[in-house]
Recover the amino acids of this structure.
């Protein structure tokens, strides 16, 4: 596929190294003023390696893809907490943005976030993929026209992400997420998918047919996508 470049690696660790190399290239070529970040287990080694690197993000503005509704930024399972712990407290950025899942008016919060994105167009957006093909929290059925919005998480996503919540914590079942259209505005998309549980989603992508049932297939419509995976097809 001419718009998609795929790098196949042997391990997740190697994949993270490749990702950091790509980020470093963009940064050094002065093509990374606004950086879209993702959370999840896929990105953990990436942030570890970014922290260990000598890369300078002090002139870079960061936007995160999504956040749970109803848990505060200091909750260990919020994505604000994840980002602060893993990256921002160790690597200074110029500015960092994430949706406020505690906002009183969630619709207003979506408009605020989307306006910020319009004012700061994304240069590079990192993406993981859900087992069900979601990108950010855009679950199957999401419109390609969607901008930042409130979502109800699917059973599949709840089942996968509930592993991070302890028994006496209730996992949120709603979230705020950049929409498909918000993500597609980024000049460059860098997607990482490691492990067999991501095979079905990548297979759908490589099959080359766009379908809202597998949101990851919307990437077929973007002009600059890089995929890093340990899966062999
Ligand atoms: P994971 O999540 O990195 O924890 O696999 C990715 C996603 O759901 O987008």
């Amino acid at each position: 596929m001419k718009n998609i470049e795929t790098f196949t690696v042997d391990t997740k660790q190697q994949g993270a190294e490749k990702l950091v190399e790509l980020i470093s290239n963009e940064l050094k070529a002065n093509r990374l003023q606004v950086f879209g970040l993702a959370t999840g287990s896929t990105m953990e080694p990436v942030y570890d390696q970014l922290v260990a690197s000598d890369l300078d993000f002090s002139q870079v503005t960061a936007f995160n893809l999504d956040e749970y509704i109803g848990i505060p930024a200091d909750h260990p399972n919020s994505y604000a907490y994840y980002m602060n712990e893993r990256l921002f407290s160790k690597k200074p950025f110029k500015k960092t943005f994430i949706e406020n899942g505690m906002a009183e008016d969630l619709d207003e919060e979506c408009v605020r976030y989307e306006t910020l994105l319009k004012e700061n167009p994304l240069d590079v957006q990192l993406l993981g993929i859900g087992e069900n093909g979601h990108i950010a929290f855009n679950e199957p059925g999401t419109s390609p026209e969607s901008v930042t919005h409130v979502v109800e998480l699917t059973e599949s996503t709840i089942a996968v992400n509930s592993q991070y919540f302890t028994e006496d914590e209730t996992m949120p079942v709603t979230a705020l997420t950049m929409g498909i259209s918000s993500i597609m505005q980024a000049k460059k998309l860098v997607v990482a998918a490691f492990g067999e549980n991501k095979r079905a989603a990548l297979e759908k992508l490589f099959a080359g047919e766009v379908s809202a049932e597998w949101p990851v297939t919307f990437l077929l419509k973007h002009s600059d996508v890089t995929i890093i995976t340990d899966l062999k097809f």
Notes: The longest strand covers residues 188-193.
